[in-house]
């Protein structure tokens, strides 16, 4: 959740950064008006509480001296009644402010470029050279169908559109990628954790998926349980409502999971093949750190994912997302886009984000800094999307006869 104190300390900058993230001006006005109204009512309540304290002491002294206190008692009763009314009003305004704030995204870091959409993202680095072919490279869905690796028809038969069955060496390669990614991340200091794929609404609120993105989630009908859209959700919330000793930071974790998304806003996009699925697999990186170290941690996580791609021999580029393309909880995001010869373009394969204290404020994750409790910073990133990595290997390592060469580092995992 956003730091509402910024409304007072630097509202113009706060406002500017949220508008750059496409927050409706009406929502921002409602946020400001409610915040100011709450502040005003709290000041009134505080004034009445001070009066109550002073008058109560006065009453005690007068009663002890045997003086008539009936008028003072009436005054205190009236003041108490007014306090009750004000307290109800404050509670109502607090609930209203929380509801508005819960739907407002994180503000952007100072070095994030302002822009409207993905077309204004900035390439900050290119890694590796795309392969050259002496034949027209095919897309993954043609290669996969011909090899019997990707079975789209059976996926559609048993589950509907945007589901795929992997068979034979395709399924083995997918599993090899998962194990290789986990080992690679472990070697970079990220502890392996295994988490539930079903989480509560409170858990999803903590990382920012609820209430705003309820339509993208799969919910169990009669229970407060949702299928996870990414393992970032349960892994970050391992420390929900906890105070972490400072010496335990940073906490760095990696996790394999299946991910489930309705893709409600992607109708008509990437309908062919495995680029955009309702169920897919991912190996995630999650870090919990101090505010002072979160910028360095972002670089560490981006390097980990980028070096993983390089170890697989996959050309890619680093893209700084502009304000209009940033995710809800992110203050800054670096996307890694892998080269796909069949499509003749780069496509996102990893997204590494610094959420600053946005998720920590929602999930109440703090650390002990001397005698003071402070909010941690949380970061998350794909390392990598397994299905898209499989696609990238198929397209980049294809041969003229339609066969696929297996990258050297994966052979022992096959």
Plain-language structure description:
The chain has 414 residues and is an alpha+beta fold. The protein has two domains: 5-102, Helix Hairpins (Orthogonal Bundle); 118-413, Bira Bifunctional Protein, Domain 2 (BirA Bifunctional Protein, domain 2). Helices cover 41% and strands 20% of the residues. The protein contains twelve helices and 15 strands. The protein has helices spanning 5-9, 11-20, 25-64, 70-102, 140-147, 152-159, 168-187, 201-207, 232-236, 294-311, 358-363, 386-396, and strands spanning 122-127, 150-151, 165-166, 191-192, 198-199, 226-227, 243-245, 251-260, 279-289, 316-320, 332-340, 345-354, 366-369, 372-375, 377-385. It has an eight-stranded mixed beta sheet. A three-stranded mixed beta sheet has the order 7-13-14, with no helix packed on it. Strands 2-3 form a two-stranded antiparallel ribbon. Helix 3 (25-64) runs antiparallel to helix 4 and helix 7 crosses helix 12. The two termini are 44 Å apart. The model has no long low-confidence stretch (mean pLDDT 95).
CATH class of the largest domain: Alpha Beta
Silhouette? elongated
Assembly type of the shown chains?
A: single chain
- How many extended strands? 15
Average of pLDDT: 95
* Main sheet summary: 8 strands, mixed
Instruction: Provide the succession of SSEs.
Output: HHHHEHEHEHEEHEHEEEHEEEHEEEH
* Sequence stretches where pLDDT stays below 50 over 5 or more residues: none
What is the CATH-assigned architecture of the largest domain?
2-Layer Sandwich
How are the strands of the largest sheet arranged? 1-10-11-12-15-9-8-4
Report the CATH superfamily of the largest domain.
Bira Bifunctional Protein, Domain 2
N/C terminus separation = 44 Å
Tell me the number of helical segments per DSSP (H or I, 4 or more residues long): 12
